[in-house]
């Protein structure tokens, strides 16, 4: 099927997906038309499961938008997806003062943005100032991952940028490798919030450029012919192999799957575990990628009824049989969580024994907490109230509904009622502001898990556990990991964070977060970032 016809078919399918699903096509992958081992050329059709919502760097956060931004921009530093090591990118060298306050970056020469303007020391300095301070007049927030900056200077002759921090900030190099700190042209920095919130408003220096965007229907990325500054972790240099990437949001699982089976799509994201074996039998490559960062966990809100009691939270911790969840619902592409972060995350400590499935321990904890009576339905009660917890199915996780339902059944066995409700993508975030909601599914593969946790869980930031009073010990630990001046010191602190969160049962680790992709057999060298976001720079297709 030619590219134009495929695109037309898929746009129609995406439009219809909200109201009806296509009949799944035969489980058969068509032979590649015009197959070629020449890597250069061709169009790749990529179906994402979600709509683009906001690409403004400091305020965006959805998975799909971060993936698109990653492919059209570059970062100051590179994070090797295999090793996690920081390496050169737009900064070809750098040095850090012994006190951890002064960072000097040398900017590689000859780099330009897609609008032709230079990516030089002056532009990098402007980007860093914009990230650190935002643009209050334009409604652009500061990047809450950024440290407090004392001064940023640049030397045009030497092509260096010097950043002086107010205090040491251990994750700074990690943050500079992250998609949220992607470098953009002056024209983007000067643009309105509305313009920056659309992918066409992000002018980057990456291997692809936004050729067109039809909101909710299609994004087309075209290769930059003059691109020649890929990071060292890439497999080649120069122009990207693909001519074009056509990104189409298809929110209906059956439509995405049918399009892959029929050959209308080359790559899709989000595959239900129950579909993996059938796709592999049909010759489709199923790739599960576990990015470094925070695991798929349920954060518990202490503003909700009954969850301010640590014994109740600990009972929930031991009442979840994670191995049953993996065996019944998932595949070998997934694994159960063994801490609040994945094993490839800096400072990871295996704490699985501390929250192992133990319904007898759950029962003892609930008895101790006074939940000794049972109502007619078998749920525990105290003072005439049922031990009931409210949650909403996570709209960002395609496997969430059966996962929630199985946990609901498991908690019922220890006498706890889990009430599951649903809302749509557009209203999910606002709905979760309700203080009566007891549990929220979260999990973010990130450049630095501890920065994310500090932003989300420090009582002076988002206070995601909704503590009535600050946990001063946890706050101090989040601050100490950022101030650490050696890896050894920081590793010790983040180990203490993991133990404290598990001991207090602030969060219930469930699974290591996995992104599952389906690829046609004629698609080669598909890769992902350290955080498992797809990158297409090295990808090539036999179909031309």
TrEMBL record:
<dbReference type="InterPro" id="IPR000914">
    <property type="entry name" value="SBP_5_dom"/>
</dbReference>
<dbReference type="InterPro" id="IPR039424">
    <property type="entry name" value="SBP_5"/>
</dbReference>
<protein>
    <submittedName>
        <fullName>ABC transporter substrate-binding protein</fullName>
    </submittedName>
</protein>
<feature type="signal peptide">
    <location>
        <begin position="1"/>
        <end position="26"/>
    </location>
</feature>
<feature type="domain" description="Solute-binding protein family 5">
    <location>
        <begin position="86"/>
        <end position="448"/>
    </location>
</feature>
<dbReference type="InterPro" id="IPR030678">
    <property type="entry name" value="Peptide/Ni-bd"/>
</dbReference>
<dbReference type="Pfam" id="PF00496">
    <property type="entry name" value="SBP_bac_5"/>
</dbReference>
<keyword id="KW-0732">Signal</keyword>
């Amino acid at each position: 099927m030619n590219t134009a016809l495929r695109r037309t078919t898929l746009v129609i399918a995406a439009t219809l997906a909200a109201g009806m699903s296509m009949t799944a096509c035969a489980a058969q992958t068509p032979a590649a038309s015009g197959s070629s081992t020449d890597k250069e050329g061709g169009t790749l059709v990529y179906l994402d499961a979600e709509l683009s919502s906001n690409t403004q760097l400091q305020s965006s956060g959805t998975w799909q938008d971060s993936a698109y931004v990653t492919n059209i921009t570059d970062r100051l530093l590179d994070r090797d997806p295999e090793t996690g090591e920081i390496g050169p990118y737009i900064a070809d060298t750098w040095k850090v003062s012994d006190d951890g306050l002064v960072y000097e970056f040398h900017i590689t020469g000859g780099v330009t943005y897609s609008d032709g303007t230079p990516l030089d020391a002056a532009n990098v300095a402007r980007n860093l100032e914009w990230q650190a301070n935002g643009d209050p007049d334009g409604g652009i927030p500061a990047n809450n991952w950024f440290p407090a900056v004392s001064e940023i200077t640049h030397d045009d002759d030497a092509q260096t940028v010097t950043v002086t921090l107010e205090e040491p900030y251990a994750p700074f190099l990690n943050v500079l490798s992250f998609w949220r700190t992607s470098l953009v042209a002056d024209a983007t920095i000067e643009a309105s919030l509305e313009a920056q919130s659309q992918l066409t408003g992000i002018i980057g220096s990456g291997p692809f450029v936004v050729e067109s965007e039809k909101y909710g229907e299609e994004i087309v990325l075209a290769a930059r012919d003059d691109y020649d500054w890929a990071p060292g972790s890439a497999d080649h240099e120069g122009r990207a192999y693909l001519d074009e990437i056509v990104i189409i949001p298809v929110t209906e699982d059956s439509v995405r799957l049918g399009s892959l089976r029929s050959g209308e799509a080359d790559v899709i994201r989000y595959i239900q575990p129950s579909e993996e074996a059938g796709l592999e039998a049909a010759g489709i490559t199923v790739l599960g990628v576990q990015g470094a960062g925070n695991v798929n966990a349920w954060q518990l809100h202490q503003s909700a009824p009954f969850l301010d009691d640590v014994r109740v939270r600990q009972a929930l911790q031991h009442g979840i049989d994670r191995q049953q969840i993996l065996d019944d619902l998932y595949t070998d592409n997934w694994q159960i969580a063994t801490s609040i972060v994945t094993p490839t995350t800096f400072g990871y400590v295996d704490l699985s024994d501390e929250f192992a499935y133990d319904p007898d321990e759950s029962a003892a904890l609930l008895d101790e907490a006074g939940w000794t009576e049972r109502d007619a339905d078998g749920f525990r009660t105290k003072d005439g109230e049922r031990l009931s917890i409210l949650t909403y199915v996570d709209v960002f996780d395609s496997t969430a509904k059966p996962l929630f339902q199985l946990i609901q059944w498991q908690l019922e066995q220890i006498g706890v009622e889990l009430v599951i409700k649903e809302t749509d993508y557009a209203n999910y975030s606002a709905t979760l502001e309700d203080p009566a909601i007891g549990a929220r599914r979260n999990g973010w593969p990130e450049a630095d898990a501890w920065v994310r946790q500090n932003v989300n869980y420090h009582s002076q930031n988002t206070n995601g556990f909704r503590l009535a009073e600050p946990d001063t010990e946890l706050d101090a630990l989040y601050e100490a990991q950022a101030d650490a001046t050696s890896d050894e010191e920081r590793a010790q602190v983040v180990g203490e964070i993991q133990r404290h969160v598990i001991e207090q049962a602030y969060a219930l680790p469930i699974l290591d977060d996995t992104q599952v992709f389906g690829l046609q057999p004629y698609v080669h060298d598909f890769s992902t970032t350290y955080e498992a976001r797809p990158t297409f720079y090295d990808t090539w297709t036999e179909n031309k």
